[in-house]
Design brief:
This protein is of the alpha+beta class. It is 19% helix and 31% strand.
Length: 241
Amino acid sequence: NSVNSSGIRIQKALSQIGIASRREIENAIIEKRISVNNKLAKLGQPVSNTDRIIFDGKLIKLNFDKILPRILIYNKPEGEIVSKKDPKGRLTVFDNLPIIKNAKWISIGRLDFNTSGLLIFTTDGNFANRLMHPRYEIEREYSVRVHGKLNNNQIIELKSGIKLEDGLAQFQKIIHKGGERSNNWYQVILKEGRNREVRRLFEVFNMTVNRLIRIRFGEIRLPLNLQKGSYIELSQSQVSS
């Protein structure tokens, strides 16, 4: 499965231009649905711009040099799920996105059904995987409204780390942003995106999170003027930077 100097592995090449995920491409190769220069594709074979690739009967143009991934910033409302299809028939975040040809939107991480705020979508599977990989410790910042108020010892514990059922979890930063009646707002930063992690950390102190909004992921902030259920697309110069 070595890659020669003249190309990129076919799974990587096709996922990079948003045709499908690497796993879906591997399955398509195994199912003999992809050919390269009129021969059935092999797993891991190198391909370049000059190869003629046919996937499910369609000619695929690589043009690595020209194609930058597309990136959307979406303000997810509560009550939408981050999934292509829902057996319960609920609204999904993909229902609101623009339709694209010869590619598909990949969400960078997920947000719970009841969580709102910043979701990033891209057409580049490799870019998505890199941003989600725990090794890169990309910061996620949230505004959190909880029932109750943390004391100083609890804040220290949350910053030093608390053992959850799937390992140690901690906030890099936690700032009290004021209260309203019996609720309090906090701004918190995490360096990972485990399932329901913010909610579970507050639940350790029997505090229920009743609003959770992601406001930043890595370098990308949720624009203040972006309405819920709306998206903006980054320009190609923003994408390349």
